[in-house]
Specification:
Blueprint (H helix, E strand, L loop, with lengths): L50 H12 L3 H10 L6 H8 L3 H7 L3 H12 L2 H12 L13 H15 L7 H9 L18 H27 L8 H16 L6 H4 L3 H18 L6 E2 L2 E2 L33 H9 L1
Antiparallel strand pairs: 1-2
Length: 327
């Protein structure tokens, strides 16, 4: 009988245990690709105006983990172009080795060469002159406008990066006046709160701004009184009535105009005699933002160290400069 001692059985089943069940093939697991292609890293051509954007993009990769910081320090120079590539490739080997040894050293190398007092001056002026939908940003949203300020603020005033209230206060100083009722340090105490509110209120803020701009352009021009017009025509006629003779009034500026011109020249000449962040007699008047004037300077900042936060009388270098100037 089948299965008996004399039954040869199934030649394909020598153990007589019947067909075996095959295990299913091993299922492949889905994985996230942690490799970042080289082409994803930002390029930089050495243009000072784009350095903040370049470093912002680069930092977003370096923040992933410590290993990424080390890798970026070594790879980032390969993404240099034009002037930056020429500069880096002509550095001595030891300087390049140190610059690529860590992300911090790489940033320090860039800062020492490119982010000098002149660069800080130009970026500070750009920051102070930022206006909503200024030329070159005609279609920007309120959120994008504030983000532009935040980028610059973090580089120019990095000591306040952890002070959310101070940062919010600083970036809101340049907002259109019609937004202040919605965006202020009472309703937005942190940068996160500010960005969230901007995202929700983008359209409303644009409408407020457009109404404000429309009101500005629709204001009637100043109407001159009749006596002023008569005086103008009287002077004009007196000039033409005397042939070949020019009246004293038309030839000489008014006392107010003359005083303004003299004062303007004096201020320009005075500024030229100050260090403006330069080196005098071996001492460098490096920018120092530790002191703040109230009110802050209205023009180009401190004449001694170029800080936009104080006037020259409040500069930490003031005593040193006075001693050198009067010696």
């Amino acid at each position: 009988p089948p299965g008996g001692p004399d039954d040869p059985g199934d030649p394909h089943d020598p153990d007589g245990q019947g067909p075996r069940r095959r295990s299913p093939p091993h299922a492949e697991r889905w994985q996230v690709n942690h490799k970042i292609p080289l082409s994803s890293l930002p390029e930089w051509n050495g243009e000072g105006k784009t350095l903040i954007d370049y470093l912002t993009d680069l930092t977003s990769y370096s923040d992933l983990d410590e290993m990424m910081k080390s890798d970026i320090a070594q790879i980032a120079p390969t993404r240099f172009t034009l002037a930056t590539k020429d500069w880096f490739t002509t550095l001595p080997f030891e300087a390049r080795r140190v610059a690529t040894s860590s992300f911090d050293e790489f940033i320090l190398c860039l800062r020492e060469h490119f982010m000098d007092a002149h660069w800080i001056d130009k970026r500070t002026i750009e920051y102070e002159e930022m206006r909503f939908r200024q030329p070159g940003h005609a279609r920007e949203l309120p959120l994008q406008f504030i983000q532009r300020h935040l980028k610059y603020s973090r580089f120019l005033f990095s000591e306040n990066d952890e002070n959310d209230v101070g940062m919010v206060h600083r970036v809101l100083r340049a907002q259109p006046a019609c937004w202040a009722i919605h965006l202020n340090t009472e309703s937005c105490r942190t940068v996160v709160e500010l960005l969230r509110k901007l995202k929700v209120m983008n359209e409303g803020l644009i409408a407020d701004w457009e109404r404000s701009e429309s009101a500005k352009h629709s204001r009637p021009s100043t109407v001159h009184d009749s006596s002023s017009s008569r005086r103008f025509y009287s002077r004009k006629s007196s000039v033409h009535n005397v042939e070949g003779e020019t009246s004293e009034e038309s030839r000489s500026p008014s006392p107010t105009q003359d005083a303004y011109a003299v004062d303007s020249r004096r201020r320009s000449e005075t500024r030229d005699k100050w260090p403006r962040g330069g080196t005098w007699e071996g001492y460098t008047f490096k920018r120092d933002d530790s002191k703040e004037s109230n009110p802050p300077p209205r023009d180009q900042g401190c004449w001694i160290c170029t800080s936009p936060r104080h006037v020259h009388q409040d500069c930490p270098h003031h005593q040193r400069w006075e001693a050198m100037r009067t010696s």
